[in-house]
Specification:
- It is a single chain.
- By secondary structure, this protein is mostly helical.
- It has two domains: about 1-80, 434 Repressor (Amino-terminal Domain); about 85-119.
- Helix content is about 75%, strand content about 0%.
- The protein contains seven helices and no strands.
- α2 packs across α3 (about 45-55).
- It is elongated and about 55 Å long.
């Protein structure tokens, strides 16, 4: 049992480190903010922000919400690296088509995939 918990702990540590790097990347490369100003915007200390960015701390809900609002990124991206902006982009691309046209296209793609698998 301890072996599984250790593995789960290791995976969580890796995720926490990746999360910290994402947050640091948002701060430095997208918002161009220093630690002090960024931490103030999130309602945390710059020391704690350093821990978060180094994968040794986690933001609470309130700070994640502020980061989401500040950066425009989804909570899914901030927490897990999942870019759900593709859903919004797809919705915009499909808005000019009728529901029937979309259904017919999906069916065509399904048949096309079956055809490719059988080759």
């Amino acid at each position: 049992m301890k072996r599984n918990n250790s593995r789960a702990d290791d995976l969580e540590k890796v995720e926490q480190e990746k999360r910290g790097l994402r947050i640091k990347n948002i701060r430095e490369n997208e918002l161009y903010m220093n630690k002090t100003d960024f931490a103030k915007e999130l309602g945390i200390s710059s020391q704690f922000l350093g821990l978060v960015e180094n994968g040794k701390g986690n933001l609470v809900y309130k700070s994640i919400k502020k980061l989401r609002d500040l950066s425009g990124h989804s909570a899914d991206y901030i927490l897990y690296g999942l870019d759900d902006n593709n859903i919004d982009k797809t919705k915009k691309l499909l808005q000019d088509y009728s529901e029937q046209e979309i259904i017919e296209t999906i069916n065509f793609i399904k048949h096309f995939i079956l055809l490719i698998r059988n080759i």
